[in-house]
Amino acid sequence: MKCSIFAPAHITGFFEIIENMDPVKKGSKGAGVALDKGVTTDMEIEDGSGVSVKINGKHDARNTSITYKTIDLIKKEFKLDEYFNNKRVVVKHELEVPLGAGFGTSAGCALGASMGIAKILNLPLTFNRAAAIAHLAEIEMQSGLGDVIAEVCGGITLRLKEGAPGVGSADKLILNGSEEDLFVISKTLGEIETSSIIGDPVYKAKINKTGRNLLSKLLENPDPCQFMKLSRRFSEETALMDPEVLELVEILEDETMGSSMAMLGKTAFAISKTPDTSVEGAIVSKIDSCGCRFV
User: Which residues form the GHMP kinase N-terminal domain (predicted)?
Assistant: First the structure.
C-alpha cells in the first residue's frame, strides 16, 4: 500500500495570533503565498512494526518530530496501536526548500503524514478532517499556526478566520492575465525557531498590534503589490527583520514588485514578474494555486 502527497511551501507575509483553548480553533489570521516547490511525501505500509521517517533520505530526529506527532494523533483517535504492532509505516519526505526558514515545511510534513495515513488505511476522514489533524500536530509542537490551512488553499492566501481546515476560513487572490505567471524569489540566510517567537509574549504583543488591521487593508485592495507592501510594513513594525535580511530585502525591492521577510524565518522573499535576480543562490518558484494534493 503506497501513496504520494504534495504540499506546497508557504511563506507568510503578515499575521495575527489568535488564542483559543481548543487547539482546532487556535491559529492565525493573515496572508501569505504558496509556492510550486514544497514537500512531497511518499508513504508505504509494509510488514513489520513501528514508524520510519526520513527527510531527503536522512533520519532527522528534530525535524521529523512533527511527522511522528501527526501519526501518533491518528493512532490515538482511531485506536490503531494494535494494527501498527504488525505493520510498519515508512514515510519519505522530499523537500525542495530549506527547513526552519519560513517555508512552512513542518506543515507540509504533517499534511503528508495525515493525508497519507488517511488514504492508505481508508480511514473515515474527509480531506479537511485529515488536514485538521496536521493542524493539531502543528499547534501541539508550536511549529506553526496557519500554514496548514494556507497550504490546503494555495495561491496568495488570505487566512480570514483562524483554525484548522474545516474550522478556519481561507480565501485567495484572483490573479489576472500576466499575474498568473508571477514568480516568487527567495533567499535564506538561516533558521528561526518558530516557537521562540510565537511563544514569546513580547513578540506576540508586537505581532498582534501590527498585524491586526493589515488583513482588512488587503481585502480592500486584493492585489499582489498590496500584499507585498503590507508584508514589508509588518516586518519593519514588528522589528522581526534583522540587518542581514533587510539588506537582501532592499536588493530584491529594486528588482521586483515588492519584497519582505518570510514569517518566520531568516529569509527574504519577493514577488516578481520575471525570474531574474542579482541575488546569488536564490530559490525561484512559481505560485501554486492548487494547494495540497495527492500525486
Answer: 68-155
- Provide the grid cell at 128: 479537511
Number of domains present in the structure of the chain: 1
- pLDDT for the residue numbered 194: 83
pTM above 0.90, yes or no: yes
Domain of 20 in residue numbering reads as 1-295
Compute the distance between CA of residue 249 and CA of residue 225 in angstroms, rounded to an integer. Answer: 15
Residues 6+ apart with CB under 8 A from 73: 133, 136, 137, 140
- What is the CATH classification number for the domain harbouring 21? 3.30.230.120
> Low-confidence residues of the chain, pLDDT below 70?
none
Pairing state between β 27-47 and 50-55: unpaired
| Contact (CB, 8 A) for 259 and 246 | no
